[in-house]
Amino acid sequence: MSSTCDCPICMEPVEASKNCVTTECGHTFHSNCLMTSVAHNGFRCPYCRTDMAQVPNEEEEEDEDEGEGEGEGEGEDDEYALRGFRFFMNNINSEEHSDEDIIEEDVYLQYQENDEPEPNLEHLPTCEFITRKLVEQGVTMENIVKTLLVHHEQYDLQNEQLERAEDELFGKMCIIISNFTPSNV
After folding, report:
1. Given this model, what pLDDT does residue 6 score?
2. Where are the alpha helices (DSSP H) in 25-158?
3. CA 148, 149, 150, 154 torsion: positive or negative?
4. What is the dihedral of CA 153, 107, 103, 36, to 10 degrees?
5. Whose CA is closest to 43, among 19, 78, 10?
6. How many other C-beta atoms can be found within 10 angstroms of the C-beta atom of residue 37?
7. What gap in Å lies between CA 111 and CA 96, rounded to an integer?
8. What percent of the chain has pLDDT over 90?
9. What is the pLDDT of residue 70?
10. Sign of the C-alpha dihedral, residues 133, 138, 141, 144?
11. What pTM was computed for the model?
12. How confident is the model over 61-88, as pLDDT tens digits?
């Protein structure tokens, strides 16, 4: 006999015999619902917020980090894993990835390919900084709309012109990002 309960995330019935996960705190979810929650919200139970993964003891972490520069490695592995979960779940659900995740993943992959250490992403310019620099270079709202329309299927006739606008805007952003130093702000 299989018992059922409602998934606290989607409120649909969960059959205890298949496609479900029960956390150590005793809450049962659809596997997909829990994976999506973990990908977007971290490793805490979506129902009671109890940690579902062991958090290192601060004293142990300080001993392990001794000799490293301050802040190096803190949370990078966790963020990479969560970003991977988000990509995975978005792909399964045919959802688009966030711009922030795409940028961080591109930076990560670029440095992995070259066997270089990944830069600290906290030292990347903010959206506000990039926007200010683009406006200073004369980029208009029309340029940005053209860039967005490249991905709209009904604008196929103008695609070459729109792709050129997208390439130009993307090139400007790449230059701003690559020339950025935290003292520029």
Report:
1. 87
2. 31-41, 58-65, 76-92, 99-113, 127-136, 141-149
3. positive
4. 100
5. 78
6. 21
7. 24
8. 1
9. 41
10. negative
11. 0.37
12. 555 545 444 444 445 666 767 777 787 7
pLDDT in tens, 89-145: 777 778 887 888 777 777 776 666 666 555 555 677 888 888 888 899 998 888 888
User: What is the three-class DSSP state of 13?
Assistant: strand
Domain ranges across the chain: 125-185
Q: How far is the CA of 115 from the CAs of 41, 83, 95, 109, 119, in angstroms?
A: 30, 20, 31, 10, 12
What residues form DSSP beta bridges with 6?
A: 13
- pLDDT mean over 33-54: 83
DSSP 44: B
Tally the C-alpha atoms within 13 A of residue 148's C-alpha that lie toward its C-beta.
Answer: 7
Q: How far is CA 23 from the centre of its chain?
A: 24
Nearest in space to 161 (alpha carbons), one of 151, 172, 150? 150
Alpha carbon dihedral 141, 147, 148, 150, in 10-degree steps, equals 150
Quick one: which of 97, 52, 50, 113 has its CA closest to 78?
Answer: 52
Contact of 39 with 85, CB cutoff 8 Å: yes
